Amino acid sequence: MSEERCEVAVVGLGAMGAATLYQLAKAGVKAVGIDRFAPPHDQGSSHGDTRITRLAVGEGAAYVPLVRRSHQIWRELEAQSGEALFEQCGVLVMSSSATTTSHHGAADFTANTIELGRTYGIAHEVLTSSQIRERFPQFGPIRDGAVGYFEPEGGFVRPERCIATQLEAAQALGATLITGATVSALESLGGGVRVKAGERTLVADKVIVCAGMWSANLLGEPFSALLKVCRQTLYWFKLAEPTIFPEVSPSFILAHGPGEADICYGFPPIPGEGSMKIATEQYVALNSIDALDRTVSAAEVDEMYRKQVAGNIAGVTSELVKARVCTYTVTPDFGFIIDDHPTLDNVTVVSACSGHGFKHSAAIGEAVAQRCVSGASQIDLSAFSLSRFA
Ligand SMILES: Cc1cc2nc3c(=O)[nH]c(=O)nc-3n(C[C@H](O)[C@H](O)[C@H](O)COP(=O)(O)OP(=O)(O)OC[C@H]3O[C@@H](n4cnc5c(N)ncnc54)[C@H](O)[C@@H]3O)c2cc1C
């Protein structure tokens, strides 16, 4: 069978791949995007209706320019497509007691978020426990000594719509999509890369791998040693009636105890749905991604409600409306990897996951496309290099 040629092949069209393909097409590059499924889909890390976005990214300063630029790109895409992608309902990061909670590698996540808000001149309010109680009665009980950070420019994005919109825009700009084809091998050929995608073989000048939880399988070492995949569960609980949620309620992250597990996050009730999406995080690595259990048991629902919802979020019942399973792909320091593959020439790896990647994805796509076209990106990506794990 003949080999198809392109300038750039993007492997994986989830959050990072769809953004990268769109930006490459926008830059006039002859690009092909390949996915094992038909994105947007519910098999990877980018489904479940909503993703929090916030400018004061408590995970670290290197992320701030990415999320800022992403907010601009979501708005540009909305203007082009007419789709609602970014809901700027504000975001509230809070503790419910004086105890600090670590999250995504930051020892005191709320304090870190406040510090970043100050350092980067991000509009925000620091709230005392009584101010949180007064303005946001849907959370709590909030104990004395608790602290809150409210950022009006934050909110949530709609992941499936963002992916679909960028893929449609990429195609309109001339990109080719190959779906239902699994890339099984990448072979460097001096000047290019041979890509085996299902029954097809492509030769690309460059390849960008955005394969989410499947990255380690495709890329081998050092990725198989660095990346762990963790099962996550998302829950939509029915609202109590009459609802105490105001018409505009923020996305939130609520740290309610000292342990890594004492944290939950959620979204405002979506009008007409009568439920609220709430989740927490687990960092137990799967032995194999084939072993991922995509069902959510009654025991898990019960535990989620008891440990995370009851006593922390008022106005939500224990009645489950729906639940979904998703995955985090996590590096040892919870940070992203955006770098060249150390042994496969002309292959770039974008493993921007670790549970907090979506908000940055539009700008990551742009920066990776710039790096691919001109060798450098406007936003500095050096914090995401592989060498930090050497
Ligand atoms: C439960 C949960 C909650 C989250 N909450 C937030 C949040 O509130 N805010 C936030 O910013 N981020 C959040 N994140 C993180 C964010 O969603 C992820 O960082 C992001 O979606 C990861 O995108 P990705 O492109 O790396 O992976 P994916 O979207 O999974 O994409 C990978 C793609 O590669 C394809 N693929 C893989 N292997 C191959 C192959 N060999 N051949 C062809 N195709 C292949 C897959 O089919 C898939 O489409 C959350 C993640 C989860 C799971």
Automatic annotation (TrEMBL):
Cofactor(s) listed in the protein's UniProt record: FAD
Keywords: FAD, Flavoprotein, Oxidoreductase
Domain FAD dependent oxidoreductase: residue ranges: 8-371
Record-level Gene Ontology MF annotations: flavin adenine dinucleotide binding; sarcosine oxidase activity
InterPro entries tied to this protein: FAD-dep_OxRdtase, FAD/NAD-bd_sf, MTOX
PANTHER family referenced in this protein's UniProt entry, alphabetically: FAD DEPENDENT OXIDOREDUCTASE DOMAIN-CONTAINING PROTEIN, PEROXISOMAL SARCOSINE OXIDASE
Protein name: Sarcosine oxidase
Originating species: Paraburkholderia phenazinium
